[in-house]
Design a protein that fits this description.
single chain; 457 residues; alpha/beta; Rossmann fold; Serine Threonine Protein Phosphatase 5, Tetratricopeptide repeat; DNA Cyclobutane Dipyrimidine Photolyase, subunit A, domain 3; 19 helices; globular; DNA-binding
Length: 457
DNA sequence: TTTTGAGTTGTTCGA
DNA sequence: GTCGAACAACTCAAA
């Protein structure tokens, strides 16, 4: 008999608990689910296919026949492949997204009919959902107490494995856009780093050894510096496991806290799957979001007239990635300055970010919008000019992504309205007045709060 | 049960 | 320019 290792968001061979659990010949399988392929943004779809090519090569290099790729609903594909290759077990790393949980339940059921076991032997997290609990056993809803418990747990060590891949596979069922066996060697480096396990390890060692990890607390907010890890997409696709990341950066850096946020948001979404698209705090359903598609389009296009907002939105559109600080700035602008629903922004991010992940994305947006658990206070409204001047002090980030402002020197790039030549190259005027928009947002949030208080008395 | 301390990432105003 | 206070009370988590 053989084990099928069904790859999903763990596209690597090293530090892979599902692979390590295999004790028979391994058939490595990936299922191209049309539902997922059409819902993922183009950038992430392309990244996925490139990552699959990389995984396929790695399997061949370690003596196997390559990665078996089938197209279809996993509920049909898994039992079919199990029958073809004579497998009695399917090993996976757990997928805790609402979609993944639902799918895996259905697949396990379909497999059990065929008397094939499905076993989850790893997760994409350091401490997966439902494992970090309060003293009374309940789940946390505030980050800091979660962090206190999380950081006191022992750090899991990377997992070793030496799987025996089968040397013969049944034929692939490749769609026209699937990875070919002999891909062109021009895999684009999408947004935050080159693709695949080896590239992720190289990015990680660069981050750890260059001192960037040690400077992370200071530099991660700087829009104009390579201060972030650039590992978001690699972690999203599981080209690298956070265990391996921690083993390199050490357990005491500010970066570790970000790993904890990743686990925390996965935990929150696990027990509140509706949080993906609905306010965690339903009392905020009363917020008077506007319904202005034209303003939304202006935001998407990076033509708001606020340089740092537009730089962020254009970085996203052009590279598939946006600096985390910029994500907060543009999110604050959409929800507070324009009073447009956070779901619109979250959808746009998911469609365009190479590292887009439902848990971190939706809950991050809810934090900005003030509708989540443990949210930002409603009066915390980012001033796009101050944020730009603080985190892009020389205007380099703006000039890089907004060519109409490339002629403005230094921090003048943040205030084209104060420069005599600020609008000479077609940069748009400010779509709203921030000071007034801020007052409007405060009024709107205060009104919801007042209504809430009336309702409770 | 009650109490106590604390809460990712900001901005503005006035001294 | 720099600093502290106000924003506005509310909820969580633990003792």
């Amino acid at each position: 008999m053989v084990d099928i290792v069904w790859f999903r968001r763990d596209l690597r061979l090293g530090d892979n608990g599902a692979l390590a659990a295999a004790d028979q010949d391994v058939v490595p399988l990936f299922v191209l689910d049309p539902v997922l392929l059409t819902s993922a943004g183009g950038v992430r779809r392309e990244r996925l296919l490139a990552s699959l090519r990389s995984l396929d090569s790695s399997i061949r290099e370690s003596g196997g026949a390559g990665l078996l790729i089938r197209r279809g609903d996993p509920v049909d594909v898994l039992p079919a492949v199990a029958g073809e290759v004579g497998a009695d077990r399917v090993l996976v790393s757990g997928d805790y997204s609402p979609f993944g949980l639902r799918r895996d339940r259905r697949v396990a059921e379909a497999l059990s009919v065929a008397e094939v076991a499905m076993a989850s032997r790893d997760t994409p997290y350091l401490h997966p959902p439902a494992t970090v609990r309060k003293g009374d056993g309940g789940p946390f809803s505030v980050f800091t107490p979660y962090w206190r418990v999380w950081s006191g747990l022992s750090v899991p060590a990377p997992v070793q494995s030496s799987p025996r891949f089968v040397t013969r596979l049944p034929p692939d069922d490749l769609p026209s856009d699937a990875p070919s066996r002999h891909p062109p060697s021009d895999d684009r480096s999408l947004g935050d780093g080159a693709v695949g396990e080896a590239a992720a390890l190289a990015t990680l060692t660069g981050f750890a050894d260059s001192g960037a990890a040690a400077r992370y607390d200071d530099d991660r907010n700087r829009l104009d510096l390579p201060g972030t890890s650039q590992l978001g997409a690699a972690l999203h696709f599981g080209e690298i496991h956070p265990r391996t990341v921690l083993a390199h950066v050490g357990a005491d850096t500010a970066f570790v806290r970000q790993m904890c946020w990743r686990d925390f948001y996965a935990d929150v979404l696990y027990r509140r799957p509706d949080a993906a698209w609905h306010n965690v705090d339903r009392r905020f359903d009363a917020l008077p979001w506007r319904d202005d598609r034209s303003q939304f389009d202006t935001w998407c296009a990076g033509r708001t007239g606020y340089p740092v907002v537009d730089a962020g939105m254009r970085q996203l559109a052009q590279s598939g990635w946006m600096h985390n600080r910029a994500r907060m700035i543009v999110a604050s602008f959409l929800t507070k300055d324009l009073l447009l629903p956070w779901q619109w922004g979250a959808r746009w991010f998911l469609d365009h970010l190479v590292d887009g992940d439902v848990a971190s994305n939706s809950l991050g947006w809810q934090w900005c919008a003030g509708t989540g658990m443990d949210p930002s206070p409603y009066y915390r409204i980012f001033n796009p000019v101050l944020q730009g001047e603080r985190f892009d002090p020389d205007g380099a980030y703006v000039r890089r992504w907004v060519p109409e402002l490339a002629h403005l020197p230094g921090r003048a790039a943040h205030t084209p309205w104060d420069q005599p030549t600020g609008y000479d190259h077609g940069y748009p005027r400010r779509m709203v007045d921030h000071a007034r928009a801020r007052d409007d947002a405060l009024d709107a949030y205060r009104a919801v709060k007042a209504a809430r208080e009336r309702a409770t008395t």
